[in-house]
Predict the 3D structure of the following.
Amino acid sequence: MMKYAFFLGCNIPARVQQYERSARAVLARFQVELVDIRAFNCCGYPLRNSDRNTYLLFSAKALALAEREDLDILTLCQCCYGSLKMAAHILANNAELKNEVNAFLGKKNLHYQGKARVTHLLTLLHRDIGEAAIREKLKTPFANVKIAPHYGCHALRPSDIMQFDDPVSPAILDTLVSLTGAKSVDWSQKLECCGAPLMGVNDDLSMRLTAKKLANAKASGADYLSVACPWCHIQFDDVQKEMEEEGRTEADLPSILYIQLLGLAMGISGRRLGLPQNKKDICDINTFIAQ
């Protein structure tokens, strides 16, 4: 049995609860124990470019809490993954800053040592659980459904620190999509930004970036987008629905979280995976299940 401190971050509990729900349902089938640490807070991502030390303190607190339980961290969010990995790298190479952070953490009876590893859900599935174990759990694989995999930005770069996948030609999500029986579609906009970081700053530009990606994925033959980042899912789900209402896109390309896709192929019900919480209707994806 594998055991992790389960780091949900901010967006998943507030806006993408189906991501947590589906991850718990699927990982339970693989005997992965998820430990909830109530003292976890924001990873600090929103502050990375405005107050680096506060960002580092937030991330170090999460890492220290996991260390206190002698656990590694599992995260579902690319932004959280990138923030925690980057913070661990910075603190490992700056003893003075690490001491400063620990001075603050000491007020909460915490101490960051640098022992806790940070793992993303996709890495857990692909590397630690493995393709063979996943195949054994499949009950209703897909047939003829075409999926455009979207990687997101923060898990890929800087690659020497993230150690997630090849930043120029990643394959982990393509491989995991193919394991479900679905066809992974190659599309030229796969690695471009989804536009989410610009929402609330320049909504027009954000939506134009999203529309460009949606059009490209649709033209490449995709029936659905599959993502593994809550920010990207919100952009392709909530924001795409808003864009349709404003006449900004006609792609009609629903987004499904990868873990939901895998859960369906494993025979887990759509309701248990939180599919009704997705804004874009994807109920007809069941028509692609191999009979």
